[in-house]
Amino acid sequence: MSIYEDLDSLARMVLEVDDKVQDPMEVAAILEAIGVTQEAVRELGYENMFDLAREVLRIADYYRSLGEIWGEEKPTRVQRLLEAIKLFLSGVLFSSPWLFITISYMFFGISLLPVYEDPLRATAIDLAMILSMTITSILPPIFLRRLQFHYYQEDYLNSQRLLIAYYLLGLAVTSVSAISIWLGFSGAPYPSWWTIYLIIYFIPFSFFWLAVSPLYFFRRYAALAISYLVALGFIGVMYRLMGAETYLINIYGLLLGAFFSMIYSITFLYIRFKILGVGSEPTAPPRLPFVAYSGLSYAFVGALYFLLIFSDRFIVWSISHTGYPLLANIEYEKAANLSLLVLVLPFGAMNYYLTRLYECISKEGEKYRMKEIEEYRRAVFKIYLRGLLMTTILGAVSLLSLYHVLSEIGWIASEFQLRIFVLSGISYCMIPLFYLGWLLSCSLYKPEPYSKFLGLAIIISIILCMAFNRILGMEYTPAGFAVSTTIMALLSLRNSLKDVKEIDQVYLSAF
Amino acid sequence: MLNEGTYPYYKGGVSTWTHSLISGLRDFEYLVLTLTTKPPLRSLYPKPPNVQSFISIPLWGTEYIGEHLPDFTVRWLMKLSRMTSDREVREKFAPVFREFIREVKRGGRNPEAIGEALAEMHRFLVNHSFKKTFRSGHVWKAFLEELEADELYSNMRIAYVLKIGSIMRSLFKTLAYRYPDANLIHSSAAGICGLIGVVKKIEDETPYVVTEHGIYYRERLLDVSYRELNLPEKVFWLNFYKVVTLVNYYYADRILPVCEFNVRWESRFGIPRSKIEVIYNGVDVERFRPMKVEVGENPPIVVMSRIEKLKDILNMINAMKYIKEKSPQTVCEIYGPIADEKYFHLCLRKAYELKVLDRIEFMGATDKPEQAYNRASVVVQPSLSEGFPYSVIEAMACGKPVVATDVGGVKEALGDVGIVVPPRSPKELADAILRLLEDEELRRRLGEWGRERVLKLFTYRRFLEEYRRLYLEVASESYCRAG
């Protein structure tokens, strides 16, 4: 009994360990832990530890009644501002692919894929891009979603295993798909070089999409931006150095960008596994059927999404009246591709508000008490509504300003192109609204309804695009696409608004 | 055999105890079920021939129940999912879940109601999809309504309610597995793992015994106290663990503390003394015996302990500052795995600040503890909380003098053949160690008496005999009750 002379000092010591002690048994546990022995208890005149604890708790209660002991630290205005800038930049970087592609093409004439005026070549390249996007979109939701699950539990060994499995399977899927595409098109009435051309682009595109996907899942948007810069930078420099038009430059550029992303992702995980994961025990790897089972519905939605966003093109290509089963219309392609730029701004806003929403689910939760749960739900709902509003406004602003700028510089030269641009642009204004709901549902592990929405949208799009194409003409084809994306966005909104209204339950049941 | 975060996936006192018990009682067949945080890759102990299998129940780290076990298939998962309707969750699961939460709120007044609720939930969860059940709004609504109805909890921040809900759901995974029939269930803690014993006792009247090393509830109290928690959240967890411990004690046929010290705590739960029986740990005196090992001119001080907060390695580091002043050549060797990385770094920093980093060697886990003890001039146990520590009786069996903190059953183990000091008193710890370092005769005498005491009271053979008798006794009592 050398250090604890009286009950007063004991009570202070107990409060130092835990200023919220409530139960005499808890006090007894702390007393034992801070060195109060049975002899000490007896020296203080108590029969046993629990009697002493009761008395110590009484004194601790008295001290607590003298004043509030714990408070909450609120972030300063500067901290809040810095946080907002960080989120905004992250939103900008999230949409970096479109942003960089646009900037590099508009200002430097550098494009990720070669630009041809020849419809056959253009068809091969566009088809390679669409097929690679659609096919590779199946794998990331299966593997990377699960990777994310382990990553956030600091299980870096399994994260690494999943990443490697993802790359290997990506390689296998790309190879098998390339062979299937080759076999599928070999009987088609295209020139022999065309299929090879398609395959040659399909492979690096697939690798590139596969390689950059983990960066979205790790939320490493700066690395994502750098991957695109590496690819575009290489293509730009090589075109200038070689001064000749050679399609291989784009392929090497894509492969280099993919290589950078892969090295980054592997190193990123390796460092965490080797340095941060020292204390974590090796865990059993997840079994493939379970990984596939949990990821299939996400993969299905991913593939359907890409089929939808290119559905109008397939209709246009298939009604070319040239004898080729699919043939791009260069004028249509130009206008439709330019309208894709509408996505950049609303995607940035969408990411900004989604990130804020995720944070607010817990941050607002720290502000509100249980009995104020309705206010809490309203607060989260308000942020979501603000996100919706800003995404919509930015989509509209983006469409209008692009329309103005592109008309001014003469990139949209004809009425034909104008109609395609506007109608496709309206569709791309709707896509971020769908994405807002879809990404929220993904992070809340509720992908199920979205495959139905997408399925319905694809059917509507195909029927209407064909109808408009035949009845009103090719330039009205994207109207079908616009109707379908609007319906899909509305369905997605209805679903996500319902979720956000009960965000506590939805959030809790997510994991 | 039920474990929680210990055998066979982690090293430590409870794991040593379990392995010794199972390996020694070859005439009994075991199935070892262990609650773990994540699905562990490999066991750290060889599987004794009388163990059917080691099965882990990970509470985190898997997306689906049983996905780490070969018997579970995606088809089975899909079947369970089809069998689970929202109406069933509302009518059959949510009311029982609500009853359980109500008991938690009250701090466990009616152990029978808790037990029945647990068994009912177990029956439901093994036949339905766990994920779908807990995703249902009815379960969350029941949880919210019960908390809202209480003045204290209704003031809880929503973020904490979400956190509690999420942890609770993970803990409930324990109830989502179908457990095989057994003649007797033995849990190494009156904790979450023991709930398996409780539901089996209620469902099949399987006899159930629980060994308490450290007192589970006491350790949770300390854990909760040391964490920065909001008051209602803290009260919730204290009540939750009280309920878990109480229901374990209530349904156990025998409660088997490893020392008398623990009995005081168990009695606080109103458990009749007749149900409690102390069985001390035993040590293999053939393996742990005085032996010649290579050691330099200055034999080190040896600490055999996991590196974590409860083991208070900082106490030893602080004591080394005083020891270095009087005995600058003395080195302290600390054997044991790093269980808490952050705490380990804290220890290193403290040692550096006190300029004793060169006097302390972290040796890591060892497979030959008997050699480590035999290297020692003095064996030290600086812990904050213990049951009946193996490190103390193993050191005694090796004929080494022991200085230990007066926690748990340490004093019962040492009797008057070692030196006990108050916990968290580095100066007194250092004084006791120095006293021994300076007096070779005292070291020799205490070492000899220590081994004699172990041979008399804490042998492995006696330990096994006690458990063998107890298993047969409890099983036959149960058999008689069943008629």
Secondary-structure content class of chain A: mainly alpha
Mean pLDDT of chain B: 92
Rg of Cα set of chain B = 24 Å
Individual helix count of chain A: 21
Q: Strand-residue fraction of chain B?
A: 5-15%
The average pLDDT value of chain A, as a whole number, equals: 85
Task: Report how far the terminal alpha carbons of chain A are from each other.
Answer: 50 Å
Pattern of helices and strands of chain A = HHHHHHHHHHHHHHHHHHHHH
Q: Please give the count of helices of chain B.
A: 20
Alpha-beta classification of chain B:
alpha/beta
* Broad shape of chain B: globular
Record keyword descriptors for this entry.
heterodimer, A: 511 residues, mainly alpha, 21 helices, 0% strand, B: 483 residues, alpha/beta, 6-stranded parallel beta sheet, 3-stranded parallel beta sheet, 12 strands, globular
Would you spell out the secondary-structure blueprint of this structure?
The complex is a heterodimer of chains A (511) and B (483).
Chain A: H1 7-17, H2 24-33, H3 38-43, H4 49-65, H5 77-94, H6 96-108, H7 119-136, H8 139-151, H9 156-186, H10 192-217, H11 221-242, H12 247-274, H13 288-309, H14 311-318, H15 330-339, H16 344-367, H17 373-408, H18 415-443, H19 448-471, H20 477-501, H21 503-508
Helix pairs in contact in A: 1-4, 2-4, 5-11, 5-16, 6-11, 7-10, 7-13, 8-9, 8-10, 8-13, 9-10, 9-12, 10-12, 11-12, 13-19, 14-19, 14-20, 15-18, 16-17, 16-18, 17-18, 18-20, 19-20
Chain B: E1 2-4, H1 13-24, E2 30-36, E3 51-58, H2 74-83, H3 86-106, H4 111-126, H5 130-135, H6 137-148, H7 151-154, H8 158-171, E4 185-187, H9 194-204, E5 208-212, H10 216-226, H11 231-251, E6 254-257, H12 260-267, E7 301-304, H13 313-326, E8 332-335, H14 341-353, E9 360-364, H15 369-375, E10 378-381, H16 390-397, E11 402-405, H17 410-414, E12 419-421, H18 426-438, H19 440-457, H20 460-482
Parallel strand pairs in B: 1-2, 2-3, 4-5, 5-6, 7-8, 7-10, 8-9, 10-11, 11-12
Helix pairs in contact in B: 3-4, 3-6, 3-11, 4-9, 4-11, 9-11, 10-11, 13-14, 13-18, 16-19
